[in-house]
Design goal:
alpha+beta, 3-stranded antiparallel beta sheet, 5 helices, 3 strands, 58% helix, 16% strand, DNA-binding, ArsR family transcriptional regulator, HTH_ArsR_DNA-bd_dom, transcription, DNA-binding transcription factor activity
Amino acid sequence: MEKVAFILKTTAHPTRIAIVQLLAAQESLSVNDISERLNIEQSLASHHLSGMKLKGILSSSRDGKNVFYALKMREVVDVIQCIAACTFL
């Protein structure tokens, strides 16, 4: 239960959930790709991405000037899908 609580606390924002959903569908995405797909400022995407990376939800790699993010903790997708399937929402 502690791991579920950690996941919920770390992803408790619509933008973070959207980022997780994008990364569940793609192996990795750059900050630019994520900000464009979510129609948000790059600085806002970077803020959410770095926070989730610090918590161990995401990993990152650099290719030149681009930083690519990927899901490190795949269980996050299961928790989000389970909550989304609740009939009371």
